[in-house]
Every structure is written in C-alpha cells, then in structure tokens.
Amino acid sequence: MTQFAETPTLRIAYEDTGPKDGPAVLLLHGWPDDPRTWDAVAPALNAAGFRTIVPYLRGFGPTVFLSADTMRSGEMAAMAQDAIELADALGLKTFAVVGHDWGARIAYVLAAAFPERVTRIATLSVGWQPGELATPSLEQVRKYWYQWFMATERGRESVRSDPKAFARIQWETWAPQGWFSDAEFAATAKSFENPDWPAITLHSYTVRWGESDKDPRYAGLDRRAMSAQSIPVPTLMIQGGADGVTLAATTEGKDKYFTGGYRRVVLDGVGHFPTREKPEEVSRLLLGFLKP
C-alpha cells in the first residue's frame, strides 16, 4: 500500500513492507522506471527480516512538489537530499541503500556525503568515480544518444510530447529482447504521467553534462559529493554483462575508490534491468551482502 511522507520540498509516496523493527533498506529505482522494479526483490528481503522502504523519486508517480515555485531539479544531489529527508521523516537514523540506475547514483552520493547514516550500499548498472562525470568513450557516447538528444529543443519536445514512447524505446534497447511484457511496461509507465516527469528527466540529463544550471539549494551537498575521493562504506556493485546502455567495461576497475570494501558481480546475459531480468539472483546477492 502506498503511504506518504511530507518533507520540506515534497510529498513523497513510498511503500513500506517487512518487519518495522527490522534493519531498514531504502530501495531506489532508476529511470525510466519506478518502484515496480523491486516487486520481486523486496519480498525476499522482507522474508529475511529486512524492512524495505521504496519511494517514488521526485517527478514519478504520486510524489509531488509542495510548491509550484520550486525548481524541478533532476540533480542526483537533490534526490539524495530527498532520501535523507524521507529517512528523517520516518525516524531512520541509519539505513542501507540499494539503488538501480539513478538510484545507484543517488546511493553513491549518500554514501560519500552521509557515511554516518548509510551502513552499506548496493548499486546496479552504474559505476562511480570521484568528481564530475568524464567525457565517455566514443562507444559509450553512442549508447548515450538519448542524453545528447535531450540537450536539443527537438529532443526536449519529444520527451514532453510523448513521455511513455520515449521511455519505452529505452526498455526495448537496454536489455536483450523479450525481457518484458506490454503489461509490465504499462504498469510502470503510469508513473511517467506525473506532470513533473518531463522536467525532471530533461534537467537530470542536461545538468549532468553542464548543459543546465544547478539548483543553488543543493550546492553544499553537491560540493561534498563531488569533492569526495573515496566511498568509505561497504559496497556491492551488480552489472549486467549484456547491458545495452551502460557498457560493462565502464564499471570495471572501480575498487580503488572504495575504502570500506567493494565487490563487483557481472551477471552474464543480463541487460540494464537486473532486478526485473534476474530477480532471484539479485535477491541472493543482496541477502549475502546485507546480512550482518
């Protein structure tokens, strides 16, 4: 059942399952996705005694801004602050974070900037290294076509005019064919009907490459995250070997940036959505990592 928590900026919709006195785990979805990506993973964690909190990120589903005047920032720092404020609203002093895609980027910010709050992180489909994003290799640049397209007015209009079609082409090309059904996509695509989804999407993919201005309210957190040279909390990174957007080679050799312990696991034949494509394997890896 969807619940709501009010923070200084948002009314955040979230799902809270498992024993309320169990260790808390934030499950953060990516783009273009929503909490349904955890449907086959959260029950396994709950059965093992973990409490899972699964929010809809800003711009997705029933999560809404409290003020029409608030900048619709898609920065990872903004969403990391959202996660901290949700944890505060729920009375969580410490918690683990499992994030996919955008959720993985948020997890890295949280671990780098709030190591006293975050006990450990597991990330899927996105790697980390210090500082601003480097210019990708030409092979990776080709996979990121949609990000460059959104930096043009015609690309922005494409996102605004048909968000679901823009999202679906990513699903169709980021993983081996046949991994999802029309019904599965339709269930998640309801979250893209949020009127802020296009603005959050466009800002997120342009600000990361310096093509949009950042929201000043997150400047302090952004500086802390960008200046971090390492991540001090234990980290598990899960990579699909057949990922059609984040090339597996781009997440190699990152262990030197993690001082709290790091393990990378590559799932052969799996694309960009391991939680949907191989939920049993993802659940097994997460349980092995999260259990004390």
How does this model look, in words?
The chain contains 12 helices and 9 strands. Helix 2 crosses helix 10, helix 3 packs across helix 10 and helix 6 crosses helix 7. The two termini are 28 Å apart. The relative contact order is 0.17. By secondary structure, the protein is of the alpha/beta class. Strands 1, 2, 3, 4, 5, 6, 7, 8 and 9 form a 9-stranded mixed sheet that branches.
Note the main attributes of this structure:
Rossmann fold, 17% strand, 292 residues, alpha/beta
Quick take:
By secondary structure, the chain is α/β, with parallel strands linked by helices. It has helices spanning 42-47, 76-89, 102-113, 138-143, 145-149, 153-161, 163-173, 182-189, 197-207, 219-227, 274-277, 279-290, and strands at 2-6, 10-17, 24-28, 51-55, 64-65, 95-100, 118-124, 235-240, 262-267. The chain has a single domain (2-290), classed as Alpha/Beta hydrolase fold, catalytic domain (Rossmann fold, 3-Layer(aba) Sandwich).
In the CATH scheme, what's the topology name?
Rossmann fold
Number of strands: 9
Proportion of residues in helical segments: 25-40%
Mean pLDDT: 98
Described by the principal axes of the CA atoms, the overall outline is globular
